[in-house]
Amino acid sequence: MADLYSQLGVKRDASEAEIKKAYRKLAKELHPDKNKGNAKATERFAKVTQAYDLLTDKDKRARYDRGEIDDDGNPRAPFGFGAGGPGGGGTGGFRPRSTNGPGGFGGAEEVDLSEIFGDLFGNAGGGRRGGGPFAGFGGFGGGRAAPPEKGADVLYRLPVPFEDAAALREQRVTLEGGKTVSIKLPKGVEEGTKIRLAGQGRTGPGGNGDAIVTISIQPHRFYTRDGDNIRIDLPVRIDEALLGAKVKVPTVEGPVMLSIPKGSTSGKTLRLKGRGFTGKDGTRGDQLVTLIVDVPADDAELQRFVETWGGRKGNPRASLGV
What we know:
By secondary structure, this protein is an alpha+beta fold. 23% of the residues lie in helices and 19% in strands. The strands form four sheets. The protein has a four-stranded mixed sheet. A hairpin with a 5-residue loop joins strand 2 and strand 3.
């Protein structure tokens, strides 16, 4: 098994500057941002980072050269110093060095991450969650390495027709790369509702991020939303209002028949049960239908009737004090 020096491609008597130079070269070649989907490159990147971490710690390097610790910085078993030489027994994961206590940095020169990766990858955070080129490899914080970083989430805004939102009709959204997926609208959907599609974001060493879809309910030309209820103004003729009638009313799921009570006036509101939006508890709201009596402006016969009408006229505004 290769020891830490051969991992970096340097001799055992290499200076700290030579180790740093070798690591810079390998890190640029193997960094996960440059080798997306390449598991071997990701594994190699972790190994050379582990080698650099130990060999730039003067105390640990000296102990490693004497065979007292293995490739992971773990103490070797007693009397086992000659059983395989330095680097012969390491099987554990990457254990970054600690800055605290004995065996810390020991005066070794720290790597300026922005210096190493700035030109190749731009901002060290890269816009990725967690930030930094070493995200997912543990950094220099001590303890076991963190799992590889997942890819970034991708945000989408999906316009949904008013009727579809009320009826919870399935929607389709096209993701980055042209893939189209179906979305089931949740109960209680409203403007700004967010739906997370797991694994449909960008790729990363630790797996894909998510797609987050924000719902935007489009306004309607005659429906309005009132909580989980839907409101609509319904024009009716004078005879329909006066004598009563059954008329068609549009709903988000198609027209239905509505009974107009005899003697109805403008402003009277009728209720269609269960024709509104579905709430978070699964209960569905109603459709509220407000009657608007349509008075024709050019009906001569109607005008003559009103002029000669001898019925009780009264004052419909009396309740307003006028």
